[in-house]
Design a protein that fits this description.
Blueprint: E1 7-10, E2 16-27, E3 30-43, E4 46-55, E5 59-61, H1 64-68
Antiparallel strand pairs: 1-2, 1-5, 2-3, 3-4
């Protein structure tokens, strides 16, 4: 389970952001727990922030330290 403030990566969309909440959605008549993530992107020197909500299973933990020195 993720905690508020954890950084996560969505393997399907590539969105990287900070966990800001939990939610739920009805998918195929099944109530599914979702994760709400604040995503920040920079385009043409402008910063955009938006919230993405997706099933918890779509998100993986992201550790800054382990991604700094990838070969």
């Amino acid at each position: 389970m993720f905690k508020f403030g954890d950084y996560v990566l969505n393997q399907q969309t590539g969105h990287l952001g900070k966990v800001i909440g939990y939610g739920h959605q009805l998918i195929n008549d099944i109530q599914t727990v979702t994760l709400k993530v604040l995503v920040a992107e920079t385009t043409n020197s402008q910063k955009y922030e938006f919230v993405v909500e997706d099933e918890i299973s779509a998100w993986n933990p992201w550790c800054v330290a382990s991604n700094l020195y990838k070969i």
